[in-house]
Amino acid sequence: MKWMQCVLGFGLCLAATLPASAAYVQVDNFESRSLGALAGQGAWVGTGSAAQIAAQVVEPDPANASNKVLHRVGLGGVYIPINIPDATTATFYLRFRRSVATSDDVFGLSDVAAPTTLTDFSYFEAQSGINNTNLRARDAGVNNNLATLQDAWYSMWLVVNTTTDSWQGYLQSNDDPTYATQTQMSVSGDNTFTFRNGAATNPLVTLLIKASNGPTTSTFYDDVYLDLAGQNLTVPVVPEPASGVLLAIAGLASLRRRRR
Ligand SMILES: [Ca+2]
Ligand SMILES: [Ca+2]
Ligand SMILES: [Ca+2]
Hints:
Largest sheet: 10 strands, antiparallel
Shape: globular
Distance between the termini: 15 Å
CATH topology of the largest domain: Jelly Rolls
Number of strands: 17
Low-confidence stretches: 1-20
Bound molecules: calcium ion
Helix content: 10-25%
CATH class of the largest domain: Mainly Beta
Oligomer: single chain
CATH architecture of the largest domain: Sandwich
Mean pLDDT: 88
């Protein structure tokens, strides 16, 4: 049994260093979190009243009871520090699932370290979100509807450029046939969305998810990752054990047989 734990430990170690998607760094996949309020776990901070903050919870995935996700409920929100330096390109990946049609969830990246006021949306720079059934992009002062969403899980890649202070978005879903293939989001041919407050020579320092209208909002989030090395349109999930790990397992097993 002991050698198996060793192999598993080694396997996890190898999996974490496999070259595919290696530049992605996990912000959170919620697997190590306790069920219940997310704020106060790790570096997550809540925004809204105490009751609103308490309602933003880690729950089992409605589509997979063994997976933990963030359930953003009603009014309120959460944020966590990140750091995308000025004058770089980075990719912000997350999965989301709109559940209730009156959702008005906003997610994105801010240059404000403590975006504490729930009703203040000027904190956002790269701003996406879900409004009713629409996936949205804020392009400077304008909210654009990018896609019509089903009650399904979607992967989204926001390629953020802090040189031009703009971003581009890509959507894919295994559950919505319209987006079975990764698709770049555009509005009337425009696929580049300017930061909400325009150009600035500063880093993005906060990842923020919140809602201040739509009290019956029900939206799920999972697998939040950042790649600071540039555009990365791969899926940053922990890979299955690769051939290297299998070879290591085979090697250890044969070693064990020889020792008998
Ligand atoms: Ca998860
Ligand atoms: Ca900038
Ligand atoms: Ca634009």
